[in-house]
Design a protein that fits this description.
Length: 265
């Protein structure tokens, strides 16, 4: 057993920050196995900070965005779910299940290229039950216009109409939008360039988002196309992001007093 797994098991379940520490260890373990880039640790920390001031739960705006995302993914002709190191380390089985229930292919797409990373991510996803993965064979990859980072190398994403980009950096979201793709982002930072550029931004932790998306898929796949279109058309991303920002403002305002009563009682 890896020393980090041992460390993770040694966190008592009664620890007030058990969940947070458990996922922190998954990220560290992922980095040791090359699944996660070194910078992925920093990205995770930034995410934790936003999660904290969002109350570490799936908010109403996040639920609305999840529902609209599933409606859009069910309506899409060629949906693709983009996978990076952090997502593969945190929720491999859930991600594979989502791809299966939505019939949406998973494409590995990395910002930080390093020898062995694609293989490590492939392993974690195949062990989690994936049957087929894309973004692996460089002879099948093409360059996306308008982007210079490694993320420009894509396979199915080139012809996708709808792309889900969890924990993405702003450049590619902007490039995908300029290529007229419908972009669904998962990002705890409501003010990131990805959040602002996306058509639908799910402002919540990926560890809660994917299970909620699977639940929504089971429910929404019984809907008629017209009903699904209605859900997507009614969704207002700007308003939803602003509602999430209000939640942060309210949470901090309440905690200004409450934190002292809760922690010191
Ligand atoms: O595996 P790679 O090489 O493709 O690299 C992946 C990272 C995440 C390192 C890369 O895409 C990156 O540097 O991303 P950024 O620019 O740091 O953006 C990541 C965003 O995801 C930030 O806005 C974080 O707040 C957010 N985030 C981090 N953890 C979570 C999250 N959002 C949802 N759930 C999380 N668990």
């Amino acid at each position: 057993m890896a020393s980090n797994e041992k460390r993770s098991e040694s966190i008592p379940k009664s620890h007030p920050r058990y969940q947070s520490l458990k996922y922190r260890h998954k990220i560290i373990e992922g980095m040791k196995k090359l699944v996660v880039a070194e910078a992925g640790l920093i990205a995770h920390g930034r995410g934790e900070c936003f999660d904290y001031i969002l109350g570490e739960k799936t908010s109403l705006p996040a639920k609305k965005a999840i529902k609209a995302s599933i409606a859009a993914l069910l309506l899409a002709k060629n949906p693709v779910i983009s996978v990076n190191g952090n997502v593969a380390a945190l929720v491999p089985s859930e991600l594979v299940s989502l791809g299966k229930v939505l019939n949406a292919p998973l494409e590995i797409n990395l910002f930080y290229q390093k020898k062995g990373r694609i293989k490590a991510i492939q392993n974690i996803l195949y062990n989690a039950g994936a049957i087929k993965l894309y973004g692996i064979d460089s002879s099948k990859m093409v360059d996306l216009d308008g982007i210079e980072s490694n993320r420009r190398k894509v396979e199915l994403i080139a012809d996708a109409d709808t792309v889900m980009v969890p924990l993405e950096d702003g450049d590619r979201t902007e490039a995908l939008k300029k290529l007229k793709k419908f972009v669904i982002a998962v990002d705890l930072n409501p003010l990131s360039r990805t959040s602002i550029w996306a058509d639908i931004t799910i402002i919540d932790n990926i560890i809660r988002v994917i299970p909620e998306m699977i639940k929504n898929t089971h429910e929404l796949r019984k809907f008629e196309k017209k009903q699904l279109r209605n859900i997507v058309e009614k969704f207002n991303n700007k308003k939803n992001i602003q509602d999430s920002l209000d939640l942060i403002i309210n949470y901090i305002t309440n905690q200004k007093e409450l934190a002292f009563e809760t922690f010191k009682k």
